Amino acid sequence: MNLNYVIIYVDDAVKATEFYKKAFELKIKFIHESNMYAEMESGQTTLAFANNEMLQMNTGIEPKEGVKNCFEIAFSTDDVSGAFEKAILNGAKEIKKTEEKPWGQLVSYVQDPFGTIVEICTPMGQYQIGRKCRNDKFLG
Predict the structure, then answer these.
(1) Most CB within 10 Å of its CB: which of 62, 70, 105, 136?
(2) Is residue 135 part of a domain?
(3) Angle 13-24/80-89 helices, nearest 10 degrees?
(4) What is the pLDDT of residues 34-91, one digit of tens each?
(5) Domain for residue 36, yes or no?
(6) At 86, which CATH number?
């Protein structure tokens, strides 16, 4: 089994792709002629946006007014602070400025204009994944 798509339901799929193109430099892969669905190039997994109406069309579930997404997506980069500032300049809301985690990874958080939490971080491959830490110190 492979994770091929992450689809986020938003008020406006085209506006969402425009935001992610400007804020995170993702390339638009596809916009459906209805403007209700769009895909971004984001590595091995496609990041897609669908208008809220498609939730009901595809699943029969009615979108709830005012309910925001309850998950986050994460982008890795070597320039976390630069990507954070660019996202803010393009309409993201600041949640948490760049900080170094106990394991050495740099991480920041923003919220996109549609309510999705976006983590901006350095790649985990640079750090020793699986090492336990307590009180900001690694355990053997």
Answers:
(1) 105
(2) no
(3) 140
(4) 999 999 999 999 999 999 888 888 778 777 766 566 567 889 999 999 999 999 999 9
(5) yes
(6) 3.10.180.10
23 CB contacts (<8 Å, ≥6 apart)? 86, 87, 89, 90, 91, 92, 112
Q: Is there a domain that residue 138 lies in? A: no
107 within a domain of the structure (yes/no): yes
Confidence category of residue 138, pLDDT binned at 50, 70, 90:
very low
| Structural domain count, the chain | 1
19, 113 Cβ separation under 8 angstroms: yes
Q: What φ, ψ does residue 105 adopt, rounded to 5°? A: -75, 140
- Rounded Cα gap, residues 108 and 94, in angstroms: 9
